[in-house]
Fold this sequence. Notes:
- By secondary structure, the protein is mostly beta strands.
- It folds into two domains: about 5-170, Jelly Rolls; about 175-325, Galactose-binding domain-like (Jelly Rolls, Sandwich).
- Helix content is about 10%, strand content about 40%.
- The chain is built from three helices and 22 strands.
- It has helices spanning about 115-120, 330-340, 345-355, and strands at about 10, 20, 45, 50, 55, 70-90, 100-105, 125-130, 135-140, 145-155, 160, 165-170, 180-185, 190-195, 220, 230-250, 260-265, 280-285, 295, 305-310, 315, 320-325.
- The strands form five sheets. Strands 1, 2, 6, 7, 8, 9, 10 and 12 form an eight-stranded antiparallel β-sheet that branches.
- Strand 3 (about 45) and strand 4 (about 50) form a beta hairpin.
Amino acid sequence: MTDFMGLVDLASRHLGGGVVAANDEFFAAADHLVEPAAPVFEPRTFGPKGQVYDGWETRRRRPGGEKDAGHDWAIVRLGAPGIVRGVVVDTSFFTGNYPPFASVEGCGVEGYPAPASLAAAEWTSLVPRSELRGGSPNAFAVASDRRLTHVRLSIYPDGGVARLRVHGDVVPDPRLLAGGLVDLAAMENGGLVVGCSNMFYGAPNNLLRPGLARTMGEGWETARRRDAGNDWVTVRLGVPGAVRLVELDTSHFKGNAPGEAAVIGADADASTLDDPGSWFEILPRTSLQPDTRHRFLVPGAARATHVRTDVYPDGGMARLRLFGEPGPGDLDALARRWLDSLPSAQAAQVQAQGNHPPLPR
């Protein structure tokens, strides 16, 4: 039911997600819905409108009043458009004021439409009207194969929701990847950590997030090793290709940066990842400095679908960037997947405008 929890939160503020419209934010702003951090609560903390909540809270509907019928809603722009696999409507700390029911819809649109245009978009159901529990995350699996750019959370009839998580597979727009080097591992391009030796202090997918880490807590950090081994992380590239530049960023890690690191790659389309002989060197074992963005040119690396970074012996890293060149066949495959996953209305608009990459015959 919750296997999707390990996938990227497409709506996260870390990826650029945001609330573009809400019909009511009387008690607490809907922007809280996409905050990456878990919600918090401090009892007896009152502002001008009552108890302060780390979430979205609407006013009570009253018969004959301004809000005497209907329900409340908020529209979220996904930071990374993609195929939604599961949704979490988290009502943490909302116990006497949570909505008893909620539903979630999605749409896929071109460009950056205003709220009025979004309201008129073609919305499809992801989670039908479903019962919620108060004070807890409510997880719902989603069966969809459409690439979405926005979701709409509706609550019935009113109340408070702390967070909305929209887990799924990123499907990058191939039109934005044309020309120059691409960060093949970027989360917003579909990169995902699929293996890791240790994640005691920090989640490894932090490595693939956009932008610079602001603190040590926004990176990946392992526990201290007390044996002769080393720690590692394996990334499935969002866009397969040949790595030309590796960036290993240890910013903020000062007394706990790895002493050395190495990077290897493999092509899962040509061999099995379980075979050690399938892996080839991208960056040899190299010394690292604390609190430093390291950039290394890579001459002549082969095509890779997966990359593994080994750190010696342990420690923390803020970001991993793998800039490279997608092969023509890889861009063709991405373009086909992207177009095949567009909702019908958006696909028709793209086709009518001729605004799509050339597709393989």
